[in-house]
Amino acid sequence: MLGTSSPPTDIEVSVPRCLMADKSTNQYKLSHSVDMPETLKKANEDDTEEAVSQWKDGKKPQSIMNIVSYNIRGLRRGVKWAAIRRMVRKQKVDMICIHETKRELIDKAACQALWGDSDVGWEFQLVINTAGGLLCVWNQQAFKLERRETGSGFILLEGVWIQENQKTSVVNLYSPCDVHQKRIQWDSLKLLRQQDPDGLWCFMGDFNNIRYQSEREGVSHRGTEATNINDFNNWIAELELEEIPCVGKRFTWFRPNGAAKSRLDRFLVSPKWLHKWPACTNFTLERNFSDHCPIMLRAKVIDWGSKPFRVFDCWFKDKSFQKVVRECWTSNQPRGWGGFALKVKLKRLKEALKVWNRDHYGDTLKKVQQIEADLNRLEDASSTRQLTQQEMTAHKNLQEEL
């Protein structure tokens, strides 16, 4: 089955005789019966170890970004700071968006202490009447900020994810509980989204709204809740956003006594975001000192390895191709066990064919385009006058070459 981390147990793998399996250490090593210099033996051992490792591990997905959204319910010094530092370190967080800081002042020193490193960027929004407050902190080696904008209960960070060299717009938001104020915020965010409809957008935070009745338990349903759900889903549809499916807990908010729970925190992304990073996952992390669970968006790409080397059918009809293959295959005889020697010979043949193709054929596409241009030029001329015998011959030759 594709994607497994180890070879299937019901398939026999043919191993060269010079390779012996050491079951006690679960490693492969060269048989002592093979007579070869120690340096070559060591090289072959290293090569074998690399091959076995790749077979066992496969092509593992590479994490491009880890973004955490967290309603901290008051960012005071002490255990919460230590908990955030541990989470940043453990989850390898690239950016954290915090809601309800309830702080009147946040400076760079505080952000560095919170993150546990000095190389950080940060943006914050102060509390209003001891409520709310937003903070964004990010690793400047992962994300390069180009523009920022703040509004009613939100911070927009527009910048580039350095590893992918991809421009994105990230919005950290905290929606008010008041329905009227919430709709004002929605209208502001809609205008924000319309500024760049084709961009890569990610809206995250505590939306203080559920999308389905199943996202709330232990709370008496108010008469207006169905309307709120419908309005929220309509707003998401108008902005053309998709929610990243969650892994882990179903709920992100818990009443201290555990009697009530809801899913209020989420990641909403644009279609272009999903097209760029289809392997996005939303993890609901463990809750600690807040009544909200932190949630983490992890975007990954799968490294399928280097691009395959293509061989064209027309090459086999070319005698010079056969000559290059024959000379390269017979002139290089690397020492070592069969698998290692075959790998080296194929690598050398690949490089030789690349050089031959470049010198022999050149840039095929450019040649085709030039032939087409010459053909069209002659055919355009034939519509206004009679072509000369030389031009007719050239037209025939160009057609055959094409």
Automatic annotation (TrEMBL):
A single Pfam family it belongs to is: Exo_endo_phos
Q: Kindly give the InterPro entries that the UniProt entry links to this protein.
A: Endo/exonu/phosph_ase_sf, Endo/exonuclease/phosphatase
Location of region: Disordered: 382-402
Q: What is this protein called?
A: Endonuclease/exonuclease/phosphatase domain-containing protein
Q: Where is the composition biased (Basic and acidic residues)?
A: 393-402
Q: Where is the Endonuclease/exonuclease/phosphatase domain?
A: 68-292
Extract the Gene3D superfamilies matched here. Endonuclease/exonuclease/phosphatase (3.60.10.10)
Span-the-membrane segments of this chain are none
Q: List, in alphabetical order, the Gene Ontology terms for molecular function in this entry.
A: catalytic activity
Where is this chain compositionally biased, Polar residues type? 383-392
